[in-house]
């Protein structure tokens, strides 16, 4: 049961992190390491050429570089919030600024990810696009099987209720 959950989680994460696969050289080894581990495997399944991999790497590096200033602004907003004294006027302002920065970052991240995925998709051959669709369909089928399994085999009541 745990193995199935792990495999499903890894597959979902792999598809979600695919655009980040080659971000390691963008300056954040931790960021790229996870992307390489997950996205690289998917890329191997699709049989990407070295030229395709290089193009994807370039696209993701450009995307990362464009997102960096906004992430720095978000980091500064978080630091201002954390350093403010609760109950003060500065605290409320910092909280409001952080909420606004988080919302902007989430919106930008979603639109950038969609654009990045579209660019990468355009690099795929028709055969690779078909393979990707098949992989996604298999993932959806496994997710549905997992949900059915969970419904048919619920956790014991004692495990779902907090200890008192």
Characterize this entry briefly.
With 164 residues, this protein is mainly alpha-helical. It contains six helices and no strands.
Give structural notes.
There is one protein chain. It is built from 6 helices and no strands. The chain has helices at residues 2-17, 29-46, 50-83, 89-123, 126-152, 157-160. α1 packs across α2 (29-46), α1 runs antiparallel to α5 (126-152) and α3 runs antiparallel to α4 (89-123). The protein is flat, with a radius of gyration of 20 Å. The chain starts with a helix and ends with a helix.
Structure characteristics:
6 helices, mainly alpha, 164 residues, flat
Structural class by secondary-structure content: mainly alpha
End-to-end C-alpha gap = 28 Å
How many H/I helices? 6
Poorly predicted runs: 6-38
What's the average pLDDT?
Answer: 79
Helix content: over 70%
Total DSSP E strands: 0
Q: Rounded to an integer, what's the Rg over CA atoms?
A: 20 Å
Q: Name the helix and strand elements from N-terminus to C-terminus, one letter apiece.
A: HHHHHH
In the residues, how many domains can be counted?
1
Beta-strand share of residues: under 5%
- Which descriptor suits the 3D outline? flat
Query: What about the largest sheet?
Result: none
